[in-house]
Amino acid sequence: MRRIHMLAGAVPLFAATSALAQSQFITPSEGTRSVSATVIAKDAGITNVNASDSRRTNGFEDFNESLELKASKQPQYDDTHSHADSNGSGTETSSITGSRISAEVRATANGWTQATGRGYATGNADFYLTFQLNRFARYAVSGDATADTTAGVYGGSTSLVYIASLTTGEPVLSIDIGNTDSDSVRRKGWLFPGPFTLQGDVSALVDAREGTAGTATSWWKMDIQFFCPADYDTNGTVNQADRDAFLNAWNAGSLDADADGNGVVNSTDRTTFLLAYGSGC
Ligand SMILES: [Ca+2]
Ligand SMILES: [Ca+2]
Q1: Which residues are placed with Cβ below 5 angstroms of ligand 1, an ion?
Q2: CA of residue 272 to ligand 2 center, whole Å
Q3: Residue 147 sits in the same domain as residue 258
């Protein structure tokens, strides 16, 4: 049974709504990104070409630049004709600010061949970042991922992205899917200061032989944004609407009011939130 009891001097009707100082919620500490592609195209046994390439960036300083790699091969047995085509790609775009991390990662593979040729392609992209959360914060995270492969050709695709605390191992976001699947996650909550990891990869593969053609794609997009802990509705300002919304959730016993994230909603959560509310931003 939950009882609402007043905390003397600690339950302000209005938070200190001074302009929300754009505190530095996060500090990146380490990161790498890489994209790669492999292609093999064999044209009726006459011409056989293959190639692979990769690009990699080290250090989160480059994360605000897109990273892209494409590979394509189409051998021709004369000046105008080919029996095979293959191409693969990996692309990444991302941005990091003091309160937000956004990333989109994609891999594609395409293969096409006539009866005696082969069109083989892979596309891959890997994303890795560690960052420090500098203060108790409210967060809003969204993640979407798809993996798809054309039926009727040998191939596959996978898509994985997750964010987790390096202290507790608790995932903040986790999406892991394979062939012909998709998933979407929207979540809000609170996180305590500490180190976090954001990792993900995508891969796509097609091996088209004996008159087949196929496409494999793999993609994820995620966005995590941090707010002052009292900004319950995560709209960028702290005011009484946040307090009312929190208390409604708390009174309903909703896990949306689990401010200390221990899986139980009790008076500690109310105290935690109202102290943060009283402190402003
Ligand atoms: Ca708000
Ligand atoms: Ca709790």
Answers
A1: 231, 233, 235, 242
A2: 9
A3: no
Name 175's Cβ contacts closer than 8 Å, sequence gap at least 6: 143, 144, 145, 159, 160, 161, 162, 183, 185, 220
Report yes or no on whether pTM surpasses 0.90.
no
Q: Which ligand is nearest to the CA of 239?
A: 1
Confidence band, pLDDT 50/70/90 cuts, at residue 18: very low
The ligand with the least distance to the CA atom of 269 is: 2
- Give the range among 30-34, 78-82, 182-186 with minimum mean pLDDT: 78-82
Task: Report, as an integer, the average pLDDT of 263-281.
Answer: 95
Tell me, in angstroms, the distance from the centre of ligand 2 to residue 266's CA. Answer: 6
Q: Is 32 found in the same domain as 165? A: yes
Domain range holding 123? 26-227
Distance 256 CA to ligand 2 centre (A): 10
Cα–ligand 1 centroid distance for 72 (angstroms) = 49
Looking at the structure, tell me whether residues 262 and 137 fall in a common domain: no
What band does 66 get if pLDDT is binned at 50, 70 and 90?
A: confident
Number of domains in the chain: 2
- The reply to whether 266 and 211 lie within a common domain is no
- pLDDT over 80 at 11, yes or no: no
Distance CA 107, CA 98 (A): 28
Q: How far is the CA of 257 from the centre of ligand 2 (A)?
A: 7
Q: Looking at the CA of 20, name the nearest ligand.
A: 1
Nearest to 147 by CA among 165, 132, 159: 159
Share of the chain above pLDDT 90, in %: 72
Q: Decide: 144 and 221 in contact? Cβ < 8 Å.
A: yes
User: Between 13 and 223, where is the model more confident?
Assistant: 223
